[in-house]
Design brief:
The structure holds two protein chains of two kinds. Helices cover about 60% and strands about 10% of the residues of chain A. Chain A is an alpha+beta fold. Chain A has two domains: about 210 residues, Multidrug efflux transporter AcrB transmembrane fold; about 80 residues, Alpha-Beta Plaits (2-Layer Sandwich), CATH 3.30.70. Chain A has a four-stranded antiparallel β-sheet with strand order 3-4-2-5. In chain A, a hairpin with a 7-residue loop joins strand 3 and strand 4. Chain B has three domains: about 240 residues, Multidrug efflux transporter AcrB transmembrane domain (Multidrug efflux transporter AcrB transmembrane fold); about 80 residues, 2-Layer Sandwich (Alpha-Beta Plaits); about 150 residues, 2-Layer Sandwich (Gyrase A, domain 2), CATH 3.30.1360. In chain B, strands 7-8-2-18 form a four-stranded antiparallel β-sheet. Chain B has a four-stranded antiparallel β-sheet with strand order 3-4-6-5. Chain B has a four-stranded antiparallel β-sheet with strand order 12-9-15-16. Classes of the chains: A alpha+beta, B alpha+beta. The interface between A and B is large, with 80 and 81 residues.
Chain lengths: ~325, ~550
Amino acid sequence: MSFQIISPDIDLDFVGKRYFFVALSSLINLAAIVLLITVGLNYGVDFVGGSVVQLQFKSATDGRHIRDALEPLGLGQVTVQDFGAAARHQYLVRFEKVKNVGSLGKKLEARLDQAYGPGAAQVLRVETVGAKVGHDLRRDGFMAVIFATVFMGIFIAWQFRGVSWSFGAGAVIALIHDVLVVTGALVISRLEFDLTTLAALLTVIGYSVHDTIIVSDRIREDAAKRRRDPIAAIMNRAINETLSRTILTSGTAIAVLIALLTLGGPILRPSAFTLLVGFITGTYSSIYIAGPVVLFWEGKGTGRSRRGAVTRAA
Amino acid sequence: MENANADFIPIVILLAVAVAFLWLHFTGGSGLTRLYLAAALTVLAVLILLPSANVGLPDWWTSDIPTPKIQLGLDLQGGTHLLLEVKLDDAVKNQLRRVGDDVKQEMKRNKLDVKSVTQDPSGAVLVTLPSAGERTAFLDLAGKMFSDMVIGLAPNSSDAGPTYKLTYRPMELDQVRRNAMEQALETIRNRIDQLGVRETTIAREGNDEILIQLPGIQDPERAKELIGKTGVLQFKLVDDNHSVSDALRDGPPPGDEILYGPASRGGREPYLVETPVLLTGDTITDARVRPGGQLEGPYVTVDLDQRGAEIFAAITSANVGRKIAIVLDNIVYSAPVIKEPIPGGRVQITGNFTYDESHELAIVLRSGALPAPVEIIEERTVGPSLGRDSIREGELSFVVGALLVLIFMAVYYSGAGVLADFGLSLNILLLICVMAAMQATLTLPGIAGIVLTLGMSVDANVLVNERMREELRLGKTPREAVRLGYERAWSAIRDSNISTFVAGLILFQFGTGPVKGFAVTLCVGVLTGVFSCFVVTRAWYDYLISMRRLSTISV
């Protein structure tokens, strides 16, 4: 047998500390909600409409110069930010509203040629999204997430009904917790929330539920074996039994994501950040959110597991 | 060029091997046979993917061996993505305007008086009669001509001069919109084809949107110019009674306008034409270039539908000797002389054309009629260099991340880890193969999907291996430990993968663009992940056990 990180007979008291962690998570979630309402996500053009242009300059310049150069085009509010390593002289210019979708790239290049001299700047990428499209994309993305969540909640509730119908609720609340933590982190980081970040958020949801199911599965298995034990004890045991797997899987996933974050370049950065935060909180919530929800549901975890626990579901 | 279907032969073989593998897995085929199949899968997958990896294969390979190519999304390979909205309401209004014109004409032909024919803001045709006396005659005629329309008294109709409102029935309205959409799609396809870009995608999205993807296009301006032509192809009479130069100096006489020829033909030639539109492009069913004889050169034939044919017959018989201008987007492409009345809807346009000129004219006639204005509502252009950077950085991070995982598994689980690594690598290969076979495009969100897939299939292996360790600790024999490890890990892996798979299906159903790509990757990844862990890696264990080499297990 080769080496191992977690000793097989580890027996930490996870369930006993649940009040502290649930309170902590609630606070964090509350903060995230406040942040989302007051500050809000830094929506990319995908979701609010407008244009974003990635520019490559031959030599260094700064945001103020670029804004001044583009001023005569009359494109409304212009924001400029550095993009990627400073030595690359790349900038992201964003226009809040664009009247005439299309033909923006040419206009910009012509204007920059005038201001900086011919060929000093090159347009690498133009993304323009009409306000209506942005609205539709946001609605479709939102609907997709809601439907997927509802399905997964029902599926989990059914698969684990033998132990408690509340596993579905636990997984869904854990998932909502993770989405809030991740979006809160996105608000703080000011990273852009666009379609790619949404895909990363969907990945987090997938992982969060996946992780919750793995831990719940062990609870289901142990509950079938130890009918007399209180569900809290079974849960704590199952968490300990799967701890080695939890650490290994999350550890490798996080290692991959750190590689993605550091080497993946500026375009992948918002996704990699979202995934990293999400995988960490997704792992945490399986233990400290999904579990406690089931315990609260089952009468504060003091009662015995219900009679239904004797039959192993599915 | 080889048949496109041939591209899928290797994939079909791959799937056949996988199915055989599954069958042997469930019927308890020998471990060795299953290992051969695993090896065959690996070799096939590598062969299929090599051409896409761009590693400098010999020409005979890439040209003679059929393989599906992995399509890179525009965010990775560079190119332009456009989303157009077709203003279908305007198409309906245009169509109704034509109905109004028909009403006027038919009334005239039947010697009936009409006070006015207008359209309300919604486009509905309002016909006002001079007096209540025409009522029966009008309703009779309209009922016969427009059986597909709802004809009723307008709300503000007066008894002295009743006003009737003509609108489409809901079904007809749908049909008009559907036709307009189809025509717009076809027209835009024709226009985009003129760009000569390979592997373009032109597809309908939702009710009134058209998606255009132009891979590798650096300058989307020309495409947008071609698409942006919102006009309608029209035929107008050239005014020969006034001189063009006078009109240029003093402005056109009443009822006339000045239009110009295309800029491409050395200077824009001015034409003085009469404003009324005699015929529109939607009556044209076909237009083709014919070679013609030595002297007259190529000519263009135009086929008109029945309504167009009737109108054209009337125009030509009334205007023999005059010129008729073919106007697209207010540019006069040609102004041939009407030599004789043309009944029957078959028109020949001759006139010392070069082949290119006649070809252009045919395209104008064929693709001219965009039934409604279109508007670009979304544009994404990624320069090729940026796409290359994204690929390089994406690849680098993916390779480093994957190596981290593989090394970790091998170190932590030693022998079992190496077997898991084999399964994991094959999983990624199979995932990309199946994506290529489905002609799914690989985008940045798709890469996020692959990362999740990798994470979940690592988890499957970890779960199995941890379970084996547990069983070994309980004193089970290696053989039993393997069996129980797989058996007990199954319910967790089954439930989590079902949940992910169905969530993927839902995302695919409701998602758009990148979310869809992500969903496809996820669903395929779930299948290949479970397959590679439970079928492929398991085959190794069964083989080792059957060879009795597994007296000890290193996990």
